[in-house]
Specification:
Shape: globular
Radius of gyration: 23 Å
Strand content: under 5%
Order of helices and strands: HHHHHH
Low-confidence stretches: 22-40
Number of domains: 2
Oligomer: single chain
Structural class: mainly alpha
């Protein structure tokens, strides 16, 4: 037995254990580190691929969402503080104005959709955002009117909370 074979054997056993216990990511990494690719189970490769694609889309979703949200927050401030509109009207106006740009960016950049089914996708996107708008307006009213939270801070808190909801609905329904 070679002096390094016990280490190789230990790493292979660890990779096998991780394939059974936690088949995503860690098993793939452990097997790659051990250089014993025979012990890398097929399901861990598939799970790793799914995890990578999910992370890729989620990262792009957050980037596009961040751009749209920055514009949304700027419009919310301008409509409320500069134009003097009620914060609920400002939320609704900013939401409508940023919505179309968000759809186009998510369609092209996040989910890589072609020209097929543009109007159906837009319809689905707007339905998801309509449900989000309902939650945003309801929670804004509760946080600002009842709890006295500053309207911009309330909007930031709500947006962080609703991001996962939007991502899952868009991934599973709008852009499937």
């Amino acid at each position: 037995m070679r002096p390094d074979s016990w280490r190789q054997d230990l790493l292979s056993r660890l990779a096998d254990f991780l394939c059974q216990a936690w088949p995503a990511g860690m098993a793939y990494i452990s097997a790659r580190l051990s250089d014993n690719r025979q012990n890398l189970c097929q399901t861990s490769r598939l799970d790793y691929l799914k995890m990578t694609v999910l992370d890729y889309r989620l990262t792009r979703f957050l980037l596009v969402g961040g751009i749209c949200y920055s514009l949304n927050l700027l419009l919310l401030y301008c409509f409320t503080a500069i134009a003097g509109l009620h914060y609920m009207v400002s939320v609704l106006l900013a939401f409508i104005m940023v919505n179309s740009a968000g759809y186009l960016m998510h369609r092209r950049y996040t989910f890589h959709q072609g020209a097929d089914h543009f109007w159906i996708g837009l319809w689905k996107y707007n339905l998801v955002l309509l449900s989000s708008c309902f939650w945003v307006l309801s929670l804004m009213y509760i946080l600002v009117s009842w709890l006295g939270v500053w309207y911009l801070l309330a909007n930031i808190i709500i947006t962080i909370g609703i991001t996962g909801y939007n991502f899952l609905l868009h991934k599973k329904w709008t852009f499937m």
